[in-house]
């Protein structure tokens, strides 16, 4: 279903005697739909901007209940007294648009969201609203209700994923402890001790990729690299990470987890296929951002990639590429004569 078709399904008949005005409304709501898809974290401010245009208002927005706000971008510019007055006048009747004259001499119009306790959509102007200027409130209210319903489902999924990651990391840590205990039964430097220690370090690095906490992304990647380095140091392979991203870069847990898994796959792939037994070298990981995207480049000085073969279907690189694409990201394989893998992931 196209964006315009979705807009028509949500808004019903965009009837108006002015054909140009009707098309302008469709274009404005279609643009809003696309913005909400591409940047869901800033969908609430985008709705306010669209309402200002469609209602010919001086100010407009979505006033969410405090419990439904995620960050500062969800905060309404309405003062508490005005918000309380509008909420009281609206009552518990979603879809009904009401307007009144405020104490400040301005005219307010608003409609409750599908779940009235979530908040309402509002607009303000110095003159009375006509019917054509009130209808967009109902349409944008439906958009806002859809976004909040999606957020509720996403919060439930996030909770389950966090629990799954936590349990997985704990299980891997337990296996690491068991391997370390077994390694202590053998003489340090012996083949058995070295094999068990290497396996322990490998599993520890996997556990790190699953512990997505509040640490800075660069610190998480360095911790991962330290664990991975421990298992290949005896082969003379070094792993280094250089990051120029700001320490306070805001990145959701889902995106940090996805990025860690993608980097892990590319680095382990470079070690596995780039260095034969006895070969020494290094794997370089460079992390930067361009305000809208995170860019990670992984390059090694081992054997060149077999471009003729490419990644097999359902191989690690193929799966990572498809997962990144689902998050509007991209995995670029090295061009001919290069060893540079490039991961791009939108920050939001």
Please explain how this structure is put together.
The structure is a single chain. The protein has 348 residues and is α+β, with helices and mostly antiparallel strands. It has two domains: 3-152, Beta-Lactamase (2-Layer Sandwich); 212-346, Histidine kinase-like ATPase, C-terminal domain (Heat Shock Protein 90). It has helices at 3-11, 19-38, 43-54, 80-90, 131-183, 191-210, 217-232, 253-274, 316-326; strands at residues 59-64, 97-101, 107-112, 119-125, 237-243, 281-289, 293-300, 330-332, 341-346. A hairpin with a 6-residue loop joins strand 3 (107-112) and strand 4. Helix 3 (43-54) packs antiparallel against helix 5, helix 6 (191-210) runs antiparallel to helix 7 (217-232) and helix 7 runs parallel beside helix 8. The longest helix is centred in the middle third of the chain and has 53 residues, at 131-183. The protein is elongated and about 85 Å long. 30% of the residues are buried.
Would you kindly provide a brief summary of this structure?
The chain is of the alpha+beta class and 348 residues long.
Strand order in the largest sheet:
5-6-7-9-8
What is the number of independent domains? Answer: 2
| Topology pattern, helix = H, strand = E | HHHEHEEEHHHEHEEHEE
Question: Any low-confidence stretches, pLDDT <50, length ≥5?
Answer: 1-15
CATH architecture classification name of the largest domain: 2-Layer Sandwich
On the 0-100 scale, what is the average pLDDT? 77
Give the C-alpha Rg. 27 Å
What structural class do helix, strand and pairing data support? alpha+beta
Tell me what portion of residues adopts beta-strand conformation.
Answer: 15-25%
CATH-defined fold name of the largest domain: Beta-Lactamase
Q: Briefly, what CATH class of the largest domain?
A: Alpha Beta
**How does the major sheet shape up?**
5 strands, mixed
Question: What percent of the residues sit in helical stretches (DSSP H or I)?
Answer: 40-55%
Globular, elongated, flat, extended or rod-shaped: what is the shape?
elongated
User: Considering the protein shown, what is the CATH homologous superfamily of the largest domain?
Assistant: GAF domain
Number of strands: 9
Question: What's the N-to-C terminus distance?
Answer: 24 Å
Number of helices: 9
